[in-house]
From TrEMBL, chain A:
The gene is slmo. GO terms for cellular component: mitochondrial intermembrane space. InterPro entries: PRELI/MSF1_dom (IPR006797), Slowmo/Ups (IPR037365). Residues 156-223 form a coiled coil. It holds the Pfam family PRELI. This is Slowmo family protein. PROSITE patterns: PRELI_MSF1 (PS50904). Keywords: Coiled coil. PANTHER family: MSF1/PX19 RELATED.
From TrEMBL, chain B:
This is Uncharacterized protein. The keyword Heme does not apply. It comes from the Eukaryota. One of its GO terms (cellular component) is cytosol. The keyword Disulfide bond applies. It comes from Heterostelium pallidum (strain ATCC 26659 / Pp 5 / PN500) (Cellular slime mold). Coiled coil: none annotated. Keywords: Disulfide bond. Pfam families: UPF0203 (PF05254). GO terms for molecular function: phosphatidic acid transfer activity. Residues 14-25 have a biased composition (Basic and acidic residues).
Amino acid sequence: MLFDTIYHTYKHLWTDISLASWRKYPTPDRPDVLSVDLLSKEIDPETGVLTCTRLIICKGSMPTWLKPIVGSNECFFYEETTVDPKTQTMVLKTKNLSFSNILGLEEVCTYTPDPSNAEWTQFKQEAKVTSSVFGVARKLEAFCLERFKTNATKGRAIMEQAIQKVKHEAEEIEQTIDKAINTVVHEAEEQLHSIDKIITTAKLEAEDTFAELEAKLDKALNNVKARDASMEERITNFDKAFSSLRAELTSDRLGIPFTRTEFTKYTPNGINKSL
Amino acid sequence: MSNQQQPQQQTQNNKEKHPMLDPTACKDLKDRHDQCFYKWYSNSFLKGNTSAECQEEWEEYQVCIKDKLKAWNLEYLLEKNKELQQKNNNK
């Protein structure tokens, strides 16, 4: 039986690390991890602790001397993850399902906030390898532990990438929100602008109608004036006619006033009377 | 992008076998559930909200997973989970 424990501090918040942990696979850095499937997820209503179980299928990348013993192409791992959001503790327990009769692989990963820096996360990775196969047990255990160490190093790099993915996505969401806000602002501005336009057009139209009204009024006034003018002209004409008639009547007599009879001669009534 | 191409090749290699023996079977349903799960996890669960979400995505995904486990002779894992569930419910 062999044990090993690796410690590491991630300079990231526990919340970010715990989300990124779910998103580590698939990754091109571990082509041997073919799939990770959730088999159950339960929340304890009392404690608020989430328990998930997962099946991990790996490509059997093993040394040639191990192949005859293990035989299979794919190997399976079973993982139980518990997350306590109150204490900010995430624990992942993984063990092998394949060839478990000849080899036991157990790994426990724990993520907790760093007590010396709340913005960092402490990571503890424990491995236990047990083999009882006569003759190759030691070799097998050593091999698996070596594999555990290489994969642990890879795992840290993968975690950093997953963190970047999570952060990048958060930024993208922020950008999308920004964009959406900008679009809304832009649309509002455009609407305001079009309202401005409508008001201006309305103003212009009002001015137009006003001008039209003014013109109509002017025309009417001019008409009235023109009518007045023609009336004046008529009055003048009448005056003229009247004075010329008077001149005609007085010039014959050369200043001699009419006698009554004579006067009546010129008036219609007089004419009638004299007849 | 390159990640998505890999599984397709895998599918072809395993065509003679049961389609569920493709390790990447149920991937689309998994992705659909995961997209919802990640949002729920960071926006709800980590903030103390214990109400379950993504139920529809989860159920569709699990129907596929059942077939996948059957193909690999791993159905016993679900039984194991049921026991775990009951333990939790009895608490």
